[in-house]
Amino acid sequence: MSKKLLDTIDYPSDLQKLAIAELPEVAQELRQLIIDIVSTKEGHLGASLGVIELTIALHYCFNTPKDLIVWDVGHQAYGHKILTGRKKAFGSNRQLGGISGFPKRSESEFDTFGVGHSSTSISAALGMAIGSKLAKTNKHHIAIIGDASIASGMAFEALNHAGDTDANLLVILNDNAIGIDPSVGALKDYLTRIKSTRNDVEQHNIFESLNFDYSGPIDGHNIDELVQEFNRLKTIKGPKFLHVITTKGKGLRQAEENQVKYHAPGKFDKISGDVFPKTNNEFSKFQDVFGRTILELAGLNQKIVGITPAMLTGSSLKLMLDEFPERTFDVGIAEQHAVTLAAGMATQGLVPFCNIYSTFIQRSYDQIIHDVALQNLPVIFCLDRAGLVGEDGATHHGIFDIAFLRCIPNLILFAPRNEIELRNILYTAQLGLNAPIAIRYPRGYGKLKNWQLPFQKIKIGRANTLQQGESLAILSIGTISSNVTDAIEKSKNNKEIAHFDMRFIKPLDMELLVSIFEKFDAILTVEDGCVKGGFGSLILEVAAQHNYDGNIEILGIPDSFIHHGTIEELQKQCGIDTENIRDKIHQLLP
Length: 590
Prior knowledge:
The chain is an alpha/beta fold. The protein has three domains: 5-260, Thiamin diphosphate (ThDP)-binding fold, Pyr/PP domains (Rossmann fold), CATH 3.40.50.970; 286-440, Rossmann fold (3-Layer(aba) Sandwich); 464-588, Rossmann fold.
């Protein structure tokens, strides 16, 4: 059996020893390796398959890592990782202690910029180019950005700045008409027109108007054409823009035909490409509880509108889009716009549900404060993926939301313990709170089979008592309460333990909390958010105000960035799994 070309390649310097005619074979082998590994280990598939030839051509033509390549988001960087010293480690991708699923500066000098959120590549690469110019070093700086990501405000800001410089910057638009869901917006329509005219492009397109040297569109799967164009662009000074057309999922028929499903398909048959049927789960995902509930509510309340920044499928808001397309808005990767759009809608009497992953709503912090809370507009924020999310790692965990939202005046902050609580708070919010509310809930499945019960209104600021006890009070927030319940059941003297589901971080149930201070000498708080400034810190603040002199212990996410692994592994690492909570209980019981 002849040795594969890919077996001879560990770094780009090995790749550059090959003849151009050999590169298509490398592409085929690289594509197959990614399919082989992701089919069994899971991960992001379609995006990396779509840029195999582009990745090879970049490392073939440019002198990396001296020349700096910045991948936007990083979903598409698997081929890049394999060609830059991590081929043998690729089987550990996204696993605890293994390599990251995204570019990560601490992992490799070839990963020039850490990414996980979109639309940062042009800004970062421009900053690098300016740094190189000031240092009088001769380098190339390349940003690869998708057609969905380039439509975001940050990308436009960077293009606007870059076009007014003489920076040695190459922006490559990886145009495949899809992000996670299909791309949306006027820019997408414009790019479609450019592609349809091909060599008869309008004399002055939008990128040339921004002072970029524009070329393309070219075939992103034609290595000869890519190499020829990269070698030409290396001789062009100033900001350059190359429009490359690719097919997401290239090389795997099902991934090309169903690009949404094969963005991150789970385990699949590497020969046929068919996704393995998942084990039937009798429970529902929290995102589906949201999606099915808002669909039901939208049928009852004509003023309800749904908004998401490019997360229709991930948030399950697509259920509402299919039924009420005129009241459902995918605004593209534009979190800031999504929030202020919702604020504008609220001024006109609409009931906006703005669904944004917890980690992504960080991008719209200014808009939450100035455009929503300051004006006390009743926007309903639904923060999916709150807490630890697992294998996507540090860029995707939703662990800071309690800390950065609880300090905002007028904003109600709620964490449902289970699916029924989520369903009922969504119902309560659309009845009219005369204030904004943020509802945080986790990724993954709940634990209730029958959650579609008749709606019940939740009283704002009222906690729930889950268990009475005399010696230790445990205050939990959100779905982490299930770990607490399990820990109590496994504890000795468990009848001595009281458990309170506080539900509202803001406003707190002060009546209950004061009674806890009066009754208990030991309090344990448990959360799946950061301990610095989080829920436990809030309890300490209130305890100090009431001169509480008992012992308060806090369990939550420590003051460090948590990397990738399963949610169960990461909960154990952070000390908020059942066993660690039980051990803490034993320490605190008299």
